[in-house]
Write a structure and sequence with these properties.
alpha/beta; Rossmann fold; Zinc Finger, Delta Prime, domain 3; five-stranded parallel β-sheet; three-stranded mixed β-sheet; flat
């Protein structure tokens, strides 16, 4: 008797209809409603990360458009009739053609599709082209396909699949009905794997299934493949697959051991810390997986501090919860944040050396010494106290941090003020403005920045956006604003601004568009000013001395307390 041919689980449990698609409820509902109401797009575009079910969904859409029975309700084709669904599943249907754009990116293949699409389908209602990895197509291929996508023959439909929608031209996207397939949650994956393991009579614990679900990172295909590997690894002994077996298979360290290591690190015990990390390395842990698990534990510790409990999280055992609770009580938030940043940097630089285990061990040593380092505030205070003069150096530092007025961009004071300037205006108001102040309904606008602030205060969002990002100011005077031509300005900008100024100030303003180019936009000027301040501070002595203490530190922003 011939043995039944083995079929891998990822193919065996590939969804064959909309009901079997998991984690895509909104997309399924939309597609079903559109097909039932016969509002079928000429082209679909399915986007999403690998393993989320794009190609399977494309086949299901093809089945729903070709089936002579009631596919959407789960009714199979009548006996004696051609079963379109079965032929599509087996990739044998004459009118449903799958085209892999990764293998043929040239325009010639697309021209063949266009030419064949003019002919009516052989047996089905539609001729359907499933274009997988469509982002790989060349620009000439897209150009050739453009007109056909916009006005295809009545019997021709396209289903595009891609993991990188940003690489698809906007002209193509606009002609397709787009759906995004999302990664499945850990809970959804867990339930799905548990269902499959029962069908396959696989002996595997719930904790092991949870580990597999997390390792799949939302990919349904990866989750099923990992489950198959786990079941096959213990098929001979016929024992239940537990967490230890899964950890060895995936190269994942036991979380309790990571917690124990973290305790040694926080205690400053370098010997025990090194012994523990070497023990885990010898057990075959993957360094990248280890650091990701380490980050997860840091998150759990901070979550425990903030929320008090997270018992609903199925991936945390009672013993691990006790260890997390103890560490959270003994560790402050600043230390956790500091550890998080250093581990993230360590993850990025893990494979700089040939042996990642060396990077891992050195990172642990760095964390041990980091624990005894001063906090940011302590370091700043020490530097001020010991290394900075009370006079000139302090003043220089204050100016670097708080900012000074600059003429870098030749900005007039009565046009745009520095965004970091906080000193009040001491000059007396003109008599005319003093009189207007008496009326609470009248606003005073003395400069361009006042106008922007007032727009924000009045919740004129669109006007504020244009003033900040689309206005190239030429000149600002009382009652008149000159603006350089800017194609990004809304059609009604001048009229709306004039109306609002009349409403706010009680006077009519003259708004003119000139051929003069004008200065940069308010938003651009802010960015330039901030960049200059950052560059200036990076070159300063304070930052250099701070870098000597925290070598991995990086100045990313600068601000002033109002």
């Amino acid at each position: 008797m011939e043995k039944t041919k083995y079929k891998i689980l990822a193919l065996k449990y590939r969804p064959k209809n909309f009901k079997e698609l998991i984690g895509q409820d909104i997309m399924v509902e939309t597609l079903v409603n559109s097909i039932k109401s016969n509002r079928i797009a000429q082209a679909f575009m399915l986007t999403g990360e690998r393993g989320t079910g794009k190609t399977s969904t494309a086949r299901i859409i093809s089945k729903s458009l070709t089936c002579t029975g009631n596919f959407l309700e789960g009714v199979k084709c009548k006996a004696g009739e051609i079963c379109h669904c079965e032929e599509i599943t087996n990739d044998k249907h004459l009118d449903v053609i799958e085209y892999n754009a990764a293998n043929a990116t040239g325009v010639d293949s697309i021209r063949e599709i266009i030419a064949s699409g003019k002919y009516k389908p052989t047996t089905a209602k539609y001729k359907i082209y499933i274009v997988d990895e469509c982002h790989m197509l060349s620009s000439s291929s897209w150009n050739a396909l453009l007109k056909t996508l916009e006005e295809p023959p009545e019997t021709l439909r396209f289903v595009m699949c891609t993991t990188e929608p940003k690489k698809v031209p906007l002209t193509i996207k606009s002609r397709c009905t787009q759906f995004t397939l999302h990664r499945a949650s850990t809970k959804v994956l867990f339930d799905h794997l548990k269902k499959i393991s029962k069908i396959e009579n696989g002996k595997i614990s719930d904790d092991a299934l949870m580990l597999l679900s997390k390792a799949a990172a939302g990919s349904i295909r990866d989750a099923i493949s990992l489950l198959e590997t786990a079941l096959l690894s213990n098929n001979i002994e016929d024992k239940e697959v537990d967490t230890n077996m899964v950890r060895k298979m995936l190269g994942i360290a036991d979380r309790s051991k990571i917690l124990e290591l973290l305790q040694f690190v926080l205690q400053g015990d370098q010997k025990k810390s090194i012994e523990k990390i070497r023990e885990m390395i010898n057990e075959g842990i993957d360094p990248a997986n280890f650091l990701n698990d380490f980050l997860e534990i840091l998150y759990f510790i901070q979550r425990k501090k903030d929320l008090g409990n997270f018992e609903s999280d199925l991936s945390v055992s009672e013993s691990e919860l006790q260890m997390i609770d103890q560490i959270s009580k003994d560790t402050n938030t600043s230390t956790i944040i500091l550890f998080w940043q250093f581990v993230l940097n360590g993850l990025e630089k893990l494979f700089v050396v040939a042996n990642p285990s060396l990077s891992l061990e050195m990172l642990i040593i760095k964390l041990i010494h980091l624990k005894g380092m001063p906090s940011y505030e302590e370091a700043i205070n020490t530097l001020h106290k010991n290394n900075l003069d009370e006079g000139e150096n302090n003043m220089t530092y204050e100016k670097n941090i708080l900012g000074e007025e600059s003429d870098t961009n030749n900005i007039s004071k009565n046009q745009i003020k520095s965004t970091i300037q906080t000193k009040p205006r001491l000059s007396p108001l003109p008599l005319e403005e003093k009189n207007l102040i008496q009326d609470p309904n009248v606003e005073i606008i003395s400069c361009f920045e006042d106008l922007i602030k007032l727009s924000s205060k009045k919740k004129e969002v669109e006007l504020k956006y244009d003033l900040e990002r689309n206005v190239n100011l030429v000149k600002f005077t009382k009652g008149k604003i000159d603006i350089g031509f800017n194609e990004n300005l809304g059609k009604n900008f001048v009229r709306n601004l004039s109306e609002k100024l009349l409403e706010w100030t009680g006077k009519r303003w003259v708004i003119t568009l000139t051929k003069t180019s004008g200065q940069k936009t308010f938003s651009e000027l802010k960015s330039i000013r901030k960049k200059e301040l950052l560059e200036k501070e990076v070159k300063g002595e304070i930052y250099k001395k701070f870098k000597d203490i925290f070598t991995d530190a990086e100045l990313v922003d600068i601000s002033k307390k109002e």
